[in-house]
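User: Just a sanity check before I run the rest of the batch. Below are the structure tokens for the first item. I only need the designed sequence back.
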């Protein structure tokens, strides 16, 4: 069964807003660093979902998100997650407290030193290099969360 989600990286002064997922008792992303985002709800476009998720997780109202790609995550060949990837500018002020994790602005040159999913490194490298091309990336993981394959069509 396919699931739709969003992932947003907000930029400010050479830094990305990143979330350390450390607040939920059960979380596949526990102790990993991610952008903000979440599920596309019934009736929403991916863009609408991205705006909503940014507001819910950070308190920021943004209106300048740029679609950067579609990332397909395959887990054990039975489950697919399609993530709509966006970037945008963070507004002034600090983000609100998020119930999913701690929000921190991280300098871009330090992002790849964080505890990230291996597949996230693929598209984050492109974002950090300011590659303007729209990404179509397929990431295949096994049951032990090991990255088995990367296919890029960009």
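Assistant: Here's the designed sequence for the first item:
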């Amino acid at each position: 069964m396919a699931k739709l989600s969003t992932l947003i990286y907000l930029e400010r002064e050479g830094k990305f807003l990143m979330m350390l997922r450390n607040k939920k008792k059960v979380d596949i992303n526990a102790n990993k660093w991610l952008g903000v985002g979440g599920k596309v709800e019934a009736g929403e476009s991916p863009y609408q979902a991205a705006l909503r998720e940014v507001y819910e997780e950070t308190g920021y109202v943004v209106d300048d998100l740029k679609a950067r790609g579609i990332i397909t995550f395959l887990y054990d060949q039975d489950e697919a997650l399609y993530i709509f990837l966006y970037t945008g500018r963070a507004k002034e002020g600090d983000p609100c407290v998020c119930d999913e994790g701690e929000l921190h602005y991280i300098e871009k040159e330090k992002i790849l030193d964080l505890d990230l999913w291996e597949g996230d490194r693929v598209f984050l490298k492109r974002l950090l290099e300011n590659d303007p091309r729209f990404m179509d990336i397929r990431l295949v993981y096994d049951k032990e969360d090991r990255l088995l394959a990367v296919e890029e069509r960009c």
